[in-house]
Amino acid sequence: MEDGKGPVCEPHHDRTAFAISAFLCVGLVVSYLPQHYRIIANKSSEGFSAWFLLLGVVSSSSSLLNIVILQYDALSCCRWLSVADCFESLMGVLQIALQWVMFTLVFFLYMLYFPSHLKRIPVVTTTPPTPIAATVPIETASNELFNDLPRPNPFRIPIIPNDPSRSKEWTISLFIAATCLAHFIISVILTAILLAVKGSPTVSWESNLWAGILGVTSMLLAACQYLPQIWKTFWRKSVGALSIPMMLLQTPGSALFVYSLMTREGTNWTSWITYAATGALQGILLTMCCVFAWRNRKAGKNDFAVEEGGFGEERDRVGDVPRLRQSLGEREPLLGDQHQ
Known about the structure:
The chain has 13 helices and no strands. By secondary structure, the protein is mainly alpha-helical. The chain has one domain. The radius of gyration is 28 Å and the shape is globular.
């Protein structure tokens, strides 16, 4: 029908799809609340992988802009449709928008409650060289043993200031936050320019191409999103700040979420494949967290305890000190053994 409204401005009613979409929107918000609460209640985001959050934020941002472009005609038709019809036609956009908001809030809380003891590298205090030399008699100054002793080197023993530098993990987190913000701003600007100048994907191959790029980008990042978190959780052997109730709600809901997006008018496979991949990987992470939580509680440990020999913040924070001392050539204990 060509009446000024355009051929795509007929209201599309599907009570089943609308009911599923409304249920998923409410469920999506509710499912993220345990994660938000856990971080706030513990005042710690320890256990999260910054790379997992980077991939998740960029992926959800790309997915949001993808569906905005694909349903640009539906957005434009809202000026002629009733509020109820417009709301129903945009349920797909609302679902992904809520997903983006709730996950981005997790990243915000991660930065806000980043453990303060992990923001700085450990301060290493070095013993003065005078006591080392004092343990050797003056008469042995020309002795071969004295000549073999490690001599203090002012260029190898740095004076660590009272204000330690930022840790590597905190520096990476700050870089990731800046990257997420820059990606979102640039993507929004490009999307707005294409839609304003070229129009919707139905009339512009440029807009359709950009929507495809965003969709594929979201898919690829989502496929890799949980891998850094799975790796970190596996080597920590602990749940940390991750919320098991959140994953228990989200993992089975992924299949329903994918089905809902598939039935939306104006979407294609690039809009829902992202959530199919994340649902499978989230199931793996959920299984690991349940196993580690059960093991730690059986051993009388809390969810933030890192298994001895595991890889995590505790091992990095404590293990960096002996590695740094060794790199500086500090061998006082060895000298003490020689004179016993």
